[in-house]
Amino acid sequence: MSNVSNVENLSPQTIRQVSKEISGLCQNPPEGIKVFMNDEDVTDIQATIEGPAGTPYAGGNFQMKLVLGNNFPAEPPKAFFLTKIFHPNVSSNGEICVNTLKKDWKPELGIKHILLTVKCLLIVPNPESALNAEAGKLLLEQYEDYSQRAKMFTEIHAKPL
């Protein structure tokens, strides 16, 4: 993950659009999601997603980051969990794999759609496209073991300060 800003590589129209959407999400966030705006760099989008009730992630607060590339919105942003999480669709470095950010991406999909998709991934993981093979295998073959491991990670890494 690069800490270099892409703001100078985006068109003024894209910067205005992203800034407006992030501002709106800060004022009226989706349920269970808190968005943080970086006034210095609109390409630095961070959010906290509350672990959904009824999942092994319940009670946790998961920090995530969206990284907008030079070709956004023609190309999807990359999404990362900054909070360590045991999940089939999250790699060891936190990268999130979800079809919305890959083959199903459309430029008209906004930041809110991405955040809601990531939250839904906590409710319904997709073990068929696992970045964490161990989590994917456990989810499919031994759900209780998967759930216990995910709960343990949530307890250790995702509790509010």
TrEMBL record:
Signal sequence extent: none
Keywords, ordered alphabetically: ATP-binding, Cell cycle, Cell division, Nucleotide-binding, Transferase, Ubl conjugation pathway
GO biological process: anaphase-promoting complex-dependent catabolic process; cell division; exit from mitosis
SUPFAM superfamilies the record matches: UBC-like
The keyword Manganese belongs to this UniProt entry's keyword annotation: no
EC number: 2.3.2.23
Gene3D superfamilies: Ubiquitin Conjugating Enzyme
SMART domains: UBCc
Domain UBC core as annotated: residue spans: 13-159
Cited PROSITE patterns: UBC_1, UBC_2
Molecular-function GO term, any one: ATP binding
Transmembrane annotation, as ranges: none
Active site annotation, chain numbering: C97 (glycyl thioester intermediate)
Annotated catalysed reactions: S-ubiquitinyl-[E1 ubiquitin-activating enzyme]-L-cysteine + [E2 ubiquitin-conjugating enzyme]-L-cysteine = [E1 ubiquitin-activating enzyme]-L-cysteine + S-ubiquitinyl-[E2 ubiquitin-conjugating enzyme]-L-cysteine
Enzyme class: transferase
Keyword Transferase among record annotations: yes
PANTHER family: UBIQUITIN-CONJUGATING ENZYME E2
Protein name in UniProt: E2 ubiquitin-conjugating enzyme
Naturally occurring in which organism (per UniProt): Biomphalaria pfeifferi (Bloodfluke planorb)
